[in-house]
Amino acid sequence: MKKTVALVLAGGEGTRLYPLTAEHAKPALPFANGYRICDFVLSNLVNSGISTIYVLAQYKPESLIHHIQTAWAPTFAESEGLIKVLLPRSNTLGGRFKGTADAVYQNFDLVQAHSPDLVAVFAADHIYRMDVQQMADFHAAKGADVTVSALTVPLEKARGFGVLKAEPDGRVAAFREKPKHPAPIPGDPRHAYASMGNYLFEPQVLERLLEEARGLGEVDFGRDLLPRICKSERVFAYDFAQNQVPGVEEFEERAYWRDVGTLSALAAAQQDTMGSRPRFHLWNGHWPIRGEYEAATLGRETEAEVKEPALWHAGRTDRHTDERVQPS
Fold first, then answer.
1. pLDDT less than 70: residues of the chain
2. Which pLDDT tens digit goes with each residue over 3-50?
3. Checking CA distances to 132, which of 3, 118, 168, 237 falls within 20 to 30 Å?
4. Domains identified in the chain and CATH numbers
């Protein structure tokens, strides 16, 4: 892996998850078996060989900070890596991030201090496994300035996402946030590419784009910056379905990814981890989820004995009527 600095966007309020988010940031919410939602993106980054990680927090950050300090920092302390939670700087907008791009802008001096070859900007609130090295290889092979990880979703479901209009070679011609008429994937008129909120940037390009955004009053990647740069920069869509993570069982759902942004979606994703043949198996010795419980502890349980979600349960939904958008 090239020298990569990762910025994990963990500042969202998660209003649709209230009352669970009354006292906790969405990424800090317990998910299942002692894991918190943020453990999935952090595990993906660490398993991919990325060891410099800044977690950008804002809303109700106390439990998130505590979790990073107790579950993650000790491991990083034993290596040459770094993981640190960053809060908004007090001299900006009353100490708040205006948006995702502004959050990165406020802390870009820390990124520059590492002189990275690549900058990863990833969302903190999704359930999935991903080898970021494969996305970086795609980024390098395409000579991309920016690469956006993309999920294949049915066209009628794409209206709730940022949608990438891609050319046959993957180059992004346009980006639209929650469009009424999503652009289909070339050669596949029934599906669209939905942004997963995970980006790779060339550092010099990101610096320039953030400065431009600052001058234009742009504060958000999905709403402001990405729609503007598709014509001027080499932006590519990385098809998440092509990502191959070792150790995935044959009964698991391929390219599993869930946005657990509502109570019903969270409950459905929790259900997906249960039983002897789960859609998403929490135990994978080749690509472990790290966090509150050591992977070895979960590994000692049999598949049929995997615990139900710990600490609380968001409620159950029927598998055929829940709000999940499933890859195709």
1. 90-94, 293-328
2. 999 999 998 888 888 898 898 999 999 999 889 999 999 999 999 999
3. 168
4. 1-131+254-303 (3.90.550.10), 150-244 (no CATH)
